[in-house]
Amino acid sequence: MIPAWLVTVPTTALLFLFYVTFYHDMEFAMWMYRPDIVDANGRVRDLQELGRHFRDGYDFIVVGAGTAGCVVANRLSEVKGWKVLLLEAGRDETVVGEVPAMMTTYQTTTTDWMYKTEPDPGYCRGIDDGRCIWRSGKVLGGTSTMSAMVYTRGNKRDYDKWKCMGNDGWSYKDVLPYFKKSEDMRIDGLRDSPYHGIGGYVTLEEYRYYSPLIKYLFKGIEELGYTLRDINGESQNGFMHSYGTLRNGFRCSTAKAFLRPVRDRPNLDVSLESHVESVIIDPLSKTAGEVVFVKRGYRYHVSVHKEVIISAGVINSPQILMLSGVGPAKHLKELGIYPVISDLKVGDNLQDNICASGIVYTVDAPVGTTLLNFLSFSGLSDMLFNSNGTLMGIPAAHGVGFQSSSIADSPDYPDIKHYLAPMAENTEGGVIFKYMNRFTDSFYNKVYKPIAFKDSFMTWSCLMRPKSRGYLRLRSRNSTLHPMIYPKYMTHPDDVKVLVEAARFSGKLSKTFALRKIGAKLNPNKFLGCEHLEMMSDEYLECSLRTYLMSLWQFAGTCKMGPATDPDAVVDPRLRVYGVRGLRVADASIMPNIITGGTYAPCIMIGEKVSDMIKDDWHQHFYNQSFSG
């Protein structure tokens, strides 16, 4: 008999209790039955005896063990005579986070920086406080540890444009070898592709679970005339079943890929829970000399003999630079940061891939898209004992593809990306997505609650090359306070035009024979604040975008790469910070323009490429020294 008190508990609360219980049951079961995934003996060791190790300093200090930083630490420590320190503000990866479907468990926890943008009436009206939520990994592996793992490199023209902007060495021809270098492609039919590599640190596989709904979505895609192809190959226009950075079906972050195999190198130290405050730069020689960080309440100064490589991400990298006296002089002086070592436009040129999302289509056929279909104990058993089942897929992106809008530069240069999602904001009843995205109660209850738990699909239809530019600034000299983020979404009219066009894609898909066959219907509940507008009109879609748009959390551009003639450049084409010796930046912040795809794969490439640049520069330095005396 059900206790009377339990009947009065809201369904959402019960489901949340189930979700939490399921998480802990899974964690316990993985420790019991999957020691290969737990990998307790193979994980990275945290540096403990700090004083003894720090006494003599390091040749290189890498700030941030994120997507690119793990790559840099591995590659630099390949040189036996170089001593390398890798500093990470977060902790080690969790066990449950290795399971693809559990990617959301990293979000809104201590492993997430949990950034928020400053309020703006032009967007995020349906989010608490009107502040968009920005996720970023505060954990070993960075955002590669909490992302959906989907592997997309961008378009050839993106990199050729970088070169045309004066960034020699960054054309597609230049960067392709670095993409291939990191890869261990394990998908049949792609292993022999000239666009992929084998034997690298990062394993690429297909997911081990795709929703039954995906076959209907792909039939609809083909009805609309799109080609199915490898979008990381010869051409990008078209669709494919998503594949990602996976190993034997489980997550393969850059920490797992690049750090665990080299954890015993005597010249590589990794210090976790190490929050970097600044880089000490000598004001006379303008040379980076020390890194200051706090670990478990103690502050440390560590000297560097050759270089500091900041790889802390699009928000933290400019924050660290500005706190070190590198950035817009007027802003730094207003905060009392002296001396200003180099007056650069740090924090400008902020870009983000944003998506028309939340426009839901319900289906009549029971195709297993609800929360309990994914989080089932049969799925847990399949994962534990067979490495397959519902937990081995990601809810948000079972398919991915690109199309060109009506104002794209070229039919061969798509500017819209679509994720095919056989799960939506309503299918889990507000347990995950409402909390994760911080929807207001009024917005969620009006739009999604009436269709809660119904089998549904949607697309995340995303703007790839935004023309709007935002910026960030320090909130104070306190390094623990997040910067003020002003993304300035949709301030350029072309961005609105492309997003409205992108938002129509799921409607076209729903009208195909394949989707009509299973009763695809548009959610009739209009977005809050848009009730007076005709459903799916241009005006309605723009209103819906300003109520709720989805960030892919793929930010770029705040430490722009460019030649010395570019007044907006922060780093040169070898990623050296202008006006400072011994200081580089290596992450998505150096991108002059965001690429047409995810930033995950390009950040691995950036880590590979900058490592070779550093090796080349210092080997050339030694060569010149040996012949100068």
UniProtKB/TrEMBL annotation:
Keywords: Membrane, Transmembrane, Transmembrane helix. It comes from the Eukaryota. The keyword Membrane applies. Residues 58-353 form the Glucose-methanol-choline oxidoreductase N-terminal domain. Residues 466-607 form the Glucose-methanol-choline oxidoreductase C-terminal domain. SUPFAM superfamilies: FAD-linked reductases, C-terminal domain (SSF54373), FAD/NAD(P)-binding domain (SSF51905). Gene3D superfamilies: FAD/NAD(P)-binding domain (3.50.50.60), Glucose Oxidase, domain 3 (3.30.560.10). The chain crosses the membrane at residues 6-24. The keyword Transmembrane applies. Signal peptide: none annotated. InterPro entries: FAD/NAD-bd_sf, GMC_OxRdtase, GMC_OxRdtase_N, GMC_OxRtase_C. PANTHER family: GLUCOSE-METHANOL-CHOLINE GMC OXIDOREDUCTASE, GLUCOSE-METHANOL-CHOLINE OXIDOREDUCTASE N-TERMINAL DOMAIN-CONTAINING PROTEIN. Belongs to the GMC oxidoreductase family. This is Uncharacterized protein.
